[in-house]
Amino acid sequence: MRRLRLGTRPSRLALIQSELVAARLRAGGTQVELITIATEGDLRAKDAPIKDGVFVKDLEHALLNGAIDLAVHSAKDLPLDPDPKLPIAAYPERADPRDALVTRAGERSVQELPQGARVGTDSPRRSAFLRAIRPDLQVIPLMGNVDMRVKRLDAGEAEALVLAAAGLDRLGLHDRIASHLDARLMPPAPAQGALAVQVRADDEEVLASVRAIDDRALRLAVVAERAVLKAIGGGCDAPVGALAAVSAAGEITLLAGASVGDISHVFASTFAGDVAQAVCAVAEELLHHVPLQTRAILDTRPELDDFGAEALEKSGWRVIHVPAVVTERIAHNAELDRARGDLTAYQWVVLTSKRGVAALFDGVQDAIPASTRFAAVGPTTARALREKGVEVEAQPDLAVGDEIPRAMAGRGLRRGDRVLLARADAASETLPEQLRLRGAEVDDVVAYRTVPAPPDSRQPLLAALADPTLEAVVFASGSAVRGLVELAGRQAERVRRLRSFAIGPKTSAVAREHGFTVAGEAPTPDSGGLVESVKRHFHEEVTRWVELQLPRSL
User: Percent of the chain having pLDDT more than 90?
Assistant: First the structure.
């Protein structure tokens, strides 16, 4: 066995943690030497914010180019989606995962701190939960390694600090801990206190040595905690904490919490077996109570209905509405005027959108003939009709235009009935054909016009594309796909990188023709179906992520 080069950051804590791993490997007969590598995180300015991966990327680069054979990280610093060529071969140990309070004047708890006390932290999560516990506290950014922050506290820059208990313990600073913070009040960062050992996937010799020191129960706990972040779309700056405990029987108790503004929620769940399914349930519980909105989705529909936007927001999404098409009424629409003025000539009026309802009833003064029956494509259109005082006689279970004739037949559509169909100029020919096949005489009237790529949407779209949290786009029609590409212009490639969700197979086909990857297709062609396709895709993503992190034997 060759002598292994273990890469580590140069800080005192990192060296102590790397020596802990080296000692375990040496106990198994492996020779190890430490190689120090300064990372971007070590070289950043004193009070610069911490970004995802700043303590990891330089060590990963050294692994890839062969300068080192393995690297030791604090597991909480790992990006959620590491390079598959650099797997985590072992989680060998974990110190106390809780956060700890360090004070200057001897206070023993957060509650004992004086009114308006300054509390230093480098963590958005700690900041958020501190404000939830004591809104009067001044939470101030205090960066640097643990030793430096303690010195800054003693120099009077703050009255207290909140730090990871594990770091204080490993540095021999246990006596500075005033109290450990209850995880039910401040859930720790996922994987806090755990060490992770990263290797090259193609180095079987090193993999074998490092796998021997993997703690399987600890790996299960760390993966469950970090999967919560994956499920909500957060990174190291998300105000989210999680702590898992694994029993001897393999049962997991997972506590997770989130805090934003004046809203804070902590939730615990116990389960055995399917980690991904349980984690998604925990994430949904958090998102139901705390509006994290850690990821953004672009909705290109002309107008949003309350159900779709609200359901996405409850799933943790920030909905950015940028219409890729708009509808407009047609001035001096003689064909629609003629039909509107002679509704008594029709046994049925069929409407496929609330925009069609608005166009048809624009300027109608007379009462609707009692002999005229109305059919609506779905609940949104039906609601728009009822708001006009019209009873809806037929509505298909599946909100698809092609299903309307079947619903009408069940409500008494007869051969020879005259049907007024008022809809968009770009509508499919399938619906009138289906009605004619059932013997109806169809008057297919253009009620409004669809205009792609409205100029007013261009700047909002460019602003949305500059948002780093934007991950996905929702399409309800092929014209919306074409309109979005036209609006994007030179940013079309950025748009195509978004995961797209389509309302049905025809829209999916148009999206693929324009270079989009269709991540999901609505099981039903309505808002509920679109929301379901988004949720299903990201649940499946969490499942795949968990499977990659856990050996099959677990």
Answer: 78
Per the residue annotation, which of 77, 99, 443, 444 is the catalytic one? 77
Q: Which two tokens stand for residue 514?
A: 């324009």
Number of Cα atoms under 13 Å in the Cβ half of residue 334: 0
Q: 3-class DSSP state for residue 500?
A: strand
Residue 112 clears pLDDT 50, i.e. is over it: yes
**Cβ contact 492:485 at 8 Å:** yes
From first CA to last CA, the distance across the chain in angstroms is 28
DSSP-assigned letter for residue 401: G
Residue 461 has phi, psi (to 5 degrees) of -65, -45
Reduce the DSSP state of residue 258 to 3 states and report it: strand
The closest alpha carbon to 209, from 22, 25, 6, 18, belongs to 25
Phi, psi at residue 30, to the nearest 5°? -95, 130
How big is the chain, counted in residues?
554
pLDDT surpassing 80 at residue 474:
yes
pLDDT at 1 over 70: no
Give the C-alpha separation, 51 to 539, whole Å: 26
Kind and range of the H or E run holding 246: strand 240-246
- Assign 553 a pLDDT band (cuts: 50, 70, 90): very low
Q: pLDDT tens digit string along 68-108?
A: 999 999 999 999 988 999 999 999 999 999 999 999 999 99
Distances (CA, A) of 490 to 243, 462, 478: 45, 10, 20
Region class of 66: left (phi > 0), else alpha (psi between -120 and 50), else beta: left
In whole angstroms, give the CA distance from residue 106 to residue 109.
9
Mean pLDDT, residues 394-407 taken together: 91
Do residues 381 and 364 lie in contact, with contact meaning Cβ atoms separated by under 8 Å? no
Q: What is the DSSP string of 316-361?
A: TEEEEE--SEEEEEPTT-HHHHHHHTTGGG-SEEEE-SHHHHHHHH
Element (H, E) at 222: helix 216-232
Sign of CA dihedral 345, 351, 356, 361: positive
Classify strands 418-424 and 252-260 as parallel, antiparallel or unpaired: unpaired
Query: Helix, strand, coil proportions of the chain in percent (round to 5)?
Result: 40, 25, 35
Helix residue ranges per DSSP H, 301-457: 306-314, 334-340, 354-361, 379-387, 404-410, 430-437
User: How many separate helices (H) and strands (E) can be counted in the chain?
Assistant: 20, 24
Torsions phi, psi for 431 (to 5 deg): -60, -50
Residue 262 among the catalytic residues: no
pLDDT, position 554: 40
CA of 24: how far to CAs of 1, 32, 40, 381, in Å? 16, 10, 28, 67
What is the bridge-based pairing of β-strands 32-36 and 179-180?
unpaired
Cα 370 off chain centre by: 49
Contact 460, 484 (CB under 8 A): no
d(CA 221, CA 255): 11
Whether residue 118 is predicted with pLDDT greater than 50 in this model: the reply is: yes
